[in-house]
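EI: anyone free to look at a 226-residue chain?
SC: sure, send it
EI:
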Amino acid sequence: MGPGVPGQGVGGYPAGAGPGGGGGDLPPGSIRPPRGKGSAIAFKAELRRSIRRNAHEQEVNFLNIVAMLDIMTIILVFLLKTLGESTAAVPQSDDLRLPNSIITTQPAQEGVVVTVSKSQILVGDGKVMTLPGRESLAQTGVGERYKRSGPNDLYIVPLGNALQAARKTDKVIRQAKGLDPAMSEAIIIADASTPYRLLIEVLFTLGQNEYGRYHLMVIQSKTLTE
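SC: here you go
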């Protein structure tokens, strides 16, 4: 075969290219084109895969604990505030009739709810004890067996135990709301016919368990005879 034509390599390949399809150095990571037309489809498919592989972002293989803790803190504060809220809507029944009052202030929304009906005492939604008859309540309150030291004692032991447990929860709630945790408040929902002796025993037991402020729930009315 004679001398090559200017601009054309040996064997009819372009100048600088050999039979292997290679010429100058290819950039790192580049795909060398195929020599035959039959490989064009495979070349394009491999090129697309290479582009996708190089453009794929690195997978995040760790968990952002700080963000999760922030979310849990917000949820916890919300739940604590929900637990601390009380409602002014008290259902009336034969066992519980609230007294009427001409007071115009809004009912308290903060505090541990203590309910004193004709038949039982509750703290929150939990029943503390069943009350004896009205005549016995007027004389000795809840009775000697529920007292610390005899019938004349004013401290009601079952009520005190329930108030201590509620105080722990209320203390956390008050701290979360930025209130003074040194004492708690109580919302007393008492039947209008509650004997004075029983009411004094309830208030005394509250005071002995770091409840420094009380709110008595009543029904607002224009006159006391309504």
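EI: The chain has five helices and seven strands.
SC: 👍
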